[in-house]
Amino acid sequence: MKLEVQEFSKLWARETDGTLDLLRTLPVDHYDFRPDSGGRSLGELAWHLAEVDAYVSLGIERGEFSFASKPPHLDRPRRVEDLAPAYRIVHDDAVARVVELDDTDLYREIRYADGRQWRVRDLLWQRLLLHHIHHRGQLTLLCRLAGGVPPALFGRRREETPRKVTATA
Known about the structure:
Elements lengths: L2 H23 L16 H21 L17 H19 L10 E3 L5 E3 H26 L24
Antiparallel strand pairs: 1-2
Helix pairs in contact: 1-3, 1-4, 2-3, 2-4
């Protein structure tokens, strides 16, 4: 049976569409934009979304998390306009690994990079999907700070919200 794997995959695909929309709206001349000197640049944070997909899915497939070798296609693009197509390739590789799982695999335990034992199901939902959404939220803010207009991922953007007219006395 693959009911939960299918449900996860369906939600992951929907979130991936939003991620690709965001990557396509990043200001092309702001790859190195970094409002916090200790944080990732816009381009680095955007690529971290691909890293999450690649490393978590590969760790699950291998049954261990090792950062000694990079997953395929994980060389970071150096231009904003190359991020979305390159992310798509990495993501599709990750999907191919995840769809091989069945629901019984979800209860297998693996030692994650943090040293703790995790069930595969929790790795998928928490370390892959929710971790990804967390960083996508950060990237949405960086997009705004860099002068871009991110897509409406969970409702309207401010550009689509009617302004309230306030009466002045």
